[in-house]
Amino acid sequence: MKKTVFSGMRPTGKLHLGHLLGALEKWVELQKDHNCIYGIVDWHALMSEYEQSKDISENILDMAIDWMACGIDPKKSIIFIQSHVPEHLELYMFLSCLVPLGWLERVPTYKEQLREITTRDLHTYAFLGYPALQAADILLYKANAVPIGEDQLPHLELTREIARRFNHLYKTNLFPDCQAMLTQTPRLLGVDGRKMSKSYQNAINLSDSEKTVREKIQSMFTDPLRIKITDLGHPDQCNVYNYYKVFAPEMAKDVYDWCSNAKKGCTECKKILAECVLKKIGPIQEKRNELTKNKKKIIDILEDGANRARKIAQKTMAEVKEAVF
Ligand code: TRP
Ligand code: SF4
User: Fold this and answer.
1) Which candidate, 36, 87, 268, 280, has a CA 20 to 30 Å from the CA of 258?
2) Is the pTM of the predicted complex or chain greater than 0.90?
3) Ligand 2 lining (C-beta closer than 6 Å)
4) Domain chopping of the chain, boundaries
5) For 39-90, what is each residue's pLDDT tens digit?
6) Whether residue 8 has its Cβ less than 6 Å from ligand 1
7) Distance 107 CA to ligand 2 centre (A)
8) For residues 139 and 159, is the Cβ–Cβ distance under 8 A?
9) Cα of 149 to ligand 1 centre, how many Å?
């Protein structure tokens, strides 16, 4: 029996290279020998972006296109929009009844976001329940494994505790234990050397044109000690070198040599890097352009995904009601 994998992403903006190398490559690989269910979690997006709700709908189609361009295959996996499967909210309600407030208040990401996010007011009733909805996403499909980044580990731990509490309270073994599958994030920084993030506008997006990719790479900060072309460089302190290690590891040795011995200048070094990055994302962009031409088809795929997800979800909800009532 193939294991079930569930994961989700919030449609809050364009996908960038960090998403590709962090999550999506893993998601694609998992399709080979797992039943994968991937949700565009728009309720989760609304919990923080409720004031800019129109942007969410625009981002949803873009996200589906990015996923498919990267190799998420709707023939192998279920791709769907969370809000098209109302059972997510139904299970969320059942779970909300039994999750102690303290469990939610203790989640480190909750406190951190309240502290750090200043552009939106997250002191809402729903936002506290964010991880409970995430638990509902996972448990609704009885997922065995959840590919996530390290920052999401507390949410998964909470999911397991909620599942155990449900099983214990209602004397059932309805919900299996789920395992986190850490998606490695190679530390790819933004073009300005800070964490790659859409809010810093320092990311290379999967939807950027070739010209934009070249310009963004040409704008990258380099070794601050290398001012003149004749200065010897320190590749280990240069973000450009780091990109080489990820996008063209076979060239890293040469780059190290031409940099530390001042055989090539930074402009040329970045020009060559741009070609390496484009070689990697070129096929994705081609596929992206192709998919963008037929939005109707994307909508149909998401509808079909929601129907398939719903079948599983309805079965679980029947069992949940049986256990509770
Ligand atoms: N909270 C996740 C994030 O921000 C997104 C998410 C929602 C998710 N539901 C999920 C991830 C279920 C894995 C499983 O990245
Ligand atoms: Fe960075 Fe390349 Fe310049 Fe060296 S030559 S400092 S690796 S951009």
Assistant:
1) 280
2) yes
3) 222-223, 226, 233, 235, 238, 240-241, 255, 259, 264, 266, 269-270
4) 3-188+295-324, 210-288
5) 999 999 999 999 999 999 999 999 999 999 999 999 999 999 999 999 999 9
6) yes
7) 41
8) yes
9) 9
